[in-house]
Design brief:
The protein is about 45% helix and about 10% strand. It contains 5 helices and 3 strands. The protein is mostly helical. It has a 3-stranded antiparallel β-sheet with strand order 1-2-3. The chain binds zinc ion (2 copies). One zinc ion binds near residues 81, 102 and 104.
Amino acid sequence: MSAFRRWARLRHRVRDEMDDNESLGLTYEELIELEERNVMCGLSKAELVGLGHFEAGKEHMNQTCHICLEGVEYAAVLVQLKCSHAYHKECIHKWLSRKRSCPTCRSEL
Ligand SMILES: [Zn+2]
Ligand SMILES: [Zn+2]
């Protein structure tokens, strides 16, 4: 797709989401940035569910959730990421709905 067609399409879409007054002043670069930000934003509901979860056992007792900084309690519901860092399900779901990386080591999901 040519840059102009892409711009025109984006502009149309952005206009649907915003007030006309707000969208009219956007340049091509701003629109692209807006699109990239949309793509970069966090995981979808389905992706979050796809991460799975498990109940904390005795082996997790000495761990800390690095999002809320609280210790992991027995039978707490945890999610473990590919990088092997684990967090409370609630904490990591909130985080990943905004970002696509591990809050501790920043590795991409
Ligand atoms: Zn937590
Ligand atoms: Zn990590």
